[in-house]
Amino acid sequence: MSAAEDYARRYERFVAGDTFASCGMHFRIVEGKKKPGDLRLDWYADRAWRPVTFEPLFYMTDFFHENEERLFPPPQYKGGEYVMKALRRAVNHGYVAAWRYVELEKKYKSPDDQLPFGDAS
Asked: pTM of the predicted model, to two decimals?
């Protein structure tokens, strides 16, 4: 497989028409307008579908990073790096794999470098 084919396969996990719900929030993927192949993520808020912008993504990332730093401060713990590692895992392996990994960490109550199956970043 060429590098271009590998790149395309890695970044084609989502298609227009996909839907997702979590924590009472509903999301959908629709065709975007920037150029052919563009996709847009919408969420249902205030009784209407609205595009998700980077602002709430950055807000949540900033919040979770800060909270992990407060609860599990480095150098004894991973702090915010735990969030960053989980985000990298989602990009590299998909959000489902990243979420399952977080759930396994909770189950084993162990940092990811001590899980019985090793680090998945």
From this structure: 0.76
